[in-house]
């Protein structure tokens, strides 16, 4: 692990990008937490309709369509934020790689 301490200066240099990536990961995961509640709500509505608690079918249809839309929206937004996370963190890795290559090149220049 001592060998990896050399990378800490690059992590510090790009700390804002890494922090942004972590924040976006948290947002994406929070969006995914809404899906189970929406599915539960949909199942409860169907169960209530089957037990004749809710008699009007249009209410059931509207609730289910709304829940389906919200589930799809949460999935799409979560996917988008996951994409942003990958782009952010992959860009940081490319920046670090570029800086390491320049550091090695400068070291070679000093040696020659």
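Sequence proposed for the structure above (112 residues):
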């Amino acid at each position: 692990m001592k060998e990896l301490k050399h990378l800490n200066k690059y992590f510090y240099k790009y700390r804002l990008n890494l922090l942004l990536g972590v924040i976006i990961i948290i947002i994406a995961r929070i969006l995914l937490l809404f899906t189970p509640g929406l599915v539960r709500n949909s199942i409860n509505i169907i169960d209530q309709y089957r037990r004749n608690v809710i008699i009007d079918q249009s209410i059931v249809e509207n609730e289910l369509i709304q829940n389906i839309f919200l589930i799809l929206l949460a999935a799409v937004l979560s996917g988008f934020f996951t994409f942003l996370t990958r782009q952010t963190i992959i860009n940081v890795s490319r920046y670090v790689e570029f800086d390491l290559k320049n550091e090695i090149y400068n070291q070679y220049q000093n040696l020659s």
